[in-house]
Every structure is written in C-alpha cells, then in structure tokens.
Amino acid sequence: MKKLFTFFAVCLMASSISAQNFTKFNATDNAGVKILNDFSTRPGAGQLDIIVPENFDVTNVILDCAVGSNDEIVTSPLPTNFSSPQTIITKITATGVTRTWNVTFRKLKPSTLPLDLTFSAGFMTNSWDANTVGWAGAAFDPADNNSKIVRFANTSAAFITAFSDAPGKVSFTMTANGVYGEGIFDVFSSEDGINWKSEMQFNSEKPITNTATSYDFTPSSNVRYVKWVYTKRVQTVSMNNISIEKGVSTIIEESTLDANVYVNGNELMVGAEVNKVEVYNVTGSQVLAASNPSTSIDLSGLAKGIYVAKVTADNKAKTLKFIIK
Questions:
Q1: Strand arrangement of the beta sheet that strand 47-53 belongs to
Q2: What is the pLDDT of residue 249?
Q3: What is the pLDDT of residue 9?
Q4: What's the CATH code, domain 262-324?
Q5: Exposed e or buried b for every residue in 247-259, given b needs 16+ CB within 10 A?
Q6: Which fold has domain 1-105?
Q7: Residues 193-231: tens digit of each pLDDT
Q8: For the structural domain made of 109-249, what CATH number should be given?
Q9: Structural domain boundaries of the chain?
Q10: pLDDT band at 257 (very low <50, low <70, confident <90, very high)
Q11: 310: confidence class by pLDDT, cuts 50, 70, 90
C-alpha cells in the first residue's frame, strides 16, 4: 500500500509540474521589435529560451504570456530587463504547487557568409554565448560531448541562423532517433525575421529517417534568416553539417535605376515600372516590403525616424533616404 501511495504521489507531482507550462509567451521591446521563435520550453529543466534579433532592446521588454486555465502566474509585475536571465514563477491554483522558470533572451547577431556550423563537440543550448555570431538555439536536449550534433527533443525547439549577405545553397543533415511517425519538423526562411516562408517540411509522408541524410535548398537572395523548428515532436531528431553558402546578388548596381522616387506626406511615390520596394530603419532591419506595388506605398505605419527605401526594377536599384517626423 505504501508503494502504491508513493507511486501515486510521484505521478501527481509530475502531473502538477507538467501542467504549469506556458500556453503563450510573446514579447516585444519598447520599439515594437518582435522575438524570432515561438516560445520554447524544456519542461524538465524549467528553462524557457527566447531568441531575438540583434537590435532587440532586452532592457525594455514587454511580455505577453499566459498559462492554462487551472494555473496562474505568481510573479508580478513581470520582469522587463532581460539583459541577464530572469525567473518567473507559476502555480497550480487548486494545489498551490509552484514552478520556477528561468527565462533567457538570446540575441542573434548576423554573420557574414559562408557560414559553416559543423560543431566540434556535443551541442547544447549553452554552447551559445553573448559573443556567438550567426546562430542561436532554444530548448535543446544535451548531446553527448562527442556526438557533434544539435538534438531537437522538445516541441517548438528551434535553431535559427542570421546573416548579412545574400545566401546561396543551404544544406544540413538530419537523423531520427527511432521511428519518426507523425512528427512534424519545419524549415523556414525570412527576409525580416517577422514574415516566415516554408522551405521544407518533414512529416509522415516525408519522414526523417534513422539514417543520416543530407538536404538542401536555395532561398531567395533577400533572405537573412533560416529557422529549423520541431513543430510536433514524436522522436528526438538531430541535425549537423549545417552550412549556408554565399550567393550572388541579382542587383547590378545601386542608383542605376532611372525612376522618379520621392516621399509625399505619408506615401512613398514610385514609378509604374518598379517591381519591388524595401524600407529599412537605421539599424538595418527591414520594416516594410512590397512586390509589384502600385505607384504609392503607405508609410503611415512607420514610427518617427530615419529610413532608407530601396526600389528595384529589371535588376537595377535606387535608394532614397527619408525622415518620418
């Protein structure tokens, strides 16, 4: 009877702890810059890893998070300065059982290309530090010191790369630790870190096998981020031999486009021949993009500041610097 009671108590404790997972964890800084990954937790460790772009102000963070209907967030007010890891405490309302979450924000600094991420030792989330360039990871399972792999063992675990050059071929090797089954693993690319395009998905029809297999794709030359995410975990999967080649820009020469481009009030006026418009802020982050635009682009959603518009047509480009007051 004592053994049965002990077993029941252990199960209840495990159930209580697992019930306190976040159902939502979003964050922006005071300038509206967003995080790069869906929230990623390692339940056994109470660790929550958030990846943010280099220009994200971790000292002025606005959190938008939630837990399940039977739980509550104890910490109040929520932390706003994540220049170092912070703790957030949650609890089960009915039992009062609490859980401490260690929340870490990791700044993703872009690298020049080519980028070779073949690791020389067992990879863990802690393999990253503040001086790391080109990549950041969230919610990874510790790997054997000699395995030289990135282990995805949790749903929403993410590995993200950032780079400042036009990319060429992206290649990597995947292996499943067992039968992949109904798992879903996604590979995305993004020009701005906000809007993500699916490049590849592994699922029951295209599974990751237990034999190391190489994959590759070539994203658009405007892409500056690539993200690997374990969307639905079934078996632990691993990745290594990650490389991103440097591509060749399709732009022939800046300022060779003979087009009339100017700002009129809250509108950017462009010629009818223009097929792409990109607007960047002073930190180099893309804040607006339009393909095959009409003769005007609405700028009313931009905050006050200095911007550079890049207008493209027929492999020629023109830039315009302007100020929103």
A1: 40-42, 47-53, 98-108, 86-92, 71-73
A2: 44
A3: 35
A4: 2.60.40.10
A5: beeeeeeeeebee
A6: Immunoglobulin-like (2.60.40)
A7: 989 999 999 999 999 999 999 999 999 888 999 999 999
A8: 2.60.120.260
A9: 1-105, 109-249, 262-324
A10: low
A11: confident
- The secondary structure of the chain, three-state, reads CHHHHHHHHHHHHHHHHHCCCEEEEEEEECCCCECCCCCEEECCCCEEEEEEECCCCCCCEEEEEEECCCEEECCCCCCCCCCCCEEEEEEECCCCCEEEEEEEEEEEECECCCEEECCCCCCCHHHCCCCCECEEEECCCCCCCCCCCEEECCCCCEEEEEECCCEEEEEEEEEECCCCCCCEEEEEEECCCCCEEEEEEECCCCCCCCCCEEEEECCCCCCCEEEEEEEECCCCEEEEEEEEEECCCCCCCECCCCCCCEEECCEEECCCCCCEEEEEECCCCEEEEEECCCCEEECCCCCCEEEEEEEEECCEEEEEEEEEC
Contacts of 99 (CB under 8 A, 6+ apart): 17, 20, 46, 89, 90, 91
The closest alpha carbon to 52, from 63, 37, 41, 66, belongs to 37
Q: In which residue are the tokens 């931009």 written? A: 302
Residue 51 in this model has a pLDDT that exceeds 90: yes
Structure-token match 């200095």, residue found: 306
Which pTM was predicted? 0.71
Q: Which residues contact 2 (CB under 8 A, 6 or more apart)?
A: none
Would you place residue 10 in the very low, low, confident or very high pLDDT band (cuts 50, 70, 90)? very low
* Length of the chain measured in residues: 325
Tell me whether the CATH fold assigned to 109-249 matches the one assigned to 262-324: no
pLDDT score recorded for residue 294: 78
